[in-house]
Amino acid sequence: MSENPAETPGADSSTTDSAVSQSSSGAAPYANQSGSNRSIGKWIALTVVVVLVAAGGTIMAIGVDSIADQIAPKLVEVTGKVKFNGQPMTAGFVQTYYARKGYMGSLGPIGKEGEFKLLTNGDAGAYSGEHRMVVIWMDNSFPPKHLLPAKYTSPASTPLVIQVSRSGKNELEIELMDSQ
User: Could you tell me the residue range of the domain that residue 45 belongs to?
Assistant: First the structure.
């Protein structure tokens, strides 16, 4: 018959479990630590948690919005004004490309004083989270020509990246400059 209790029929399983919980030296975990060392470790861990919660309240709030945007972005109102070389644009449109696949970007026509309001699939707003933004303004010739520098007209080259907040105001001021 085997000496190993796990192989012995009718053996007590607590004997096997206690053997697993011991370290390789045969001592139980923390057997060589005094009670005061364990107590100090608990206080340090508690202090770190309290400091992180107290100092990082805003970080936690921002983190929660970011996590929520990853799970289920919210459609929120986004408005703004666009200027080119210091002057309000009078025509064209603003288009965004949502950073995550699976969600639509938004589009907003530019009014006579440079103002715009983004729409997503006909509904007011843009999804919360990060978007790349392009601005399109073309002349009336055929074929039409872009009136803005090329870097603003392509999602691959645009320097315009916006963060749409799910809980705050989303009023954008966009300044475009000629590349000359």
Answer: 14-55
Look at the chain and report how many structural domains it folds into.
Answer: 2
Residues paired with residue 133 on neighbouring β-strands, in sequence order: 96
pLDDT in tens, 160-171: 999 999 888 899
Among 150, 151, 159, 153, CA closest to 136: 153
**Within-domain flag for 18:** yes
pTM, two decimal places:
0.60
Residues 51 and 80 both lie in one domain: no
What does the radius of gyration of the chain's CA atoms come to, in whole angstroms? 30
Q: Residue 35 domain-assigned?
A: yes
Q: Is the peptide bond before 5 cis (omega within 30 degrees of 0)?
A: no
E strand or H helix at 45:
helix 35-55
Q: For residue 69, is it within any domain?
A: no
Q: Quick check: 118 pLDDT over 70?
A: yes
Question: Torsions phi, psi of 28, nearest 5?
Answer: -70, 150
Q: What angle do CA 77, 99, 86 make, to 5 degrees?
A: 60
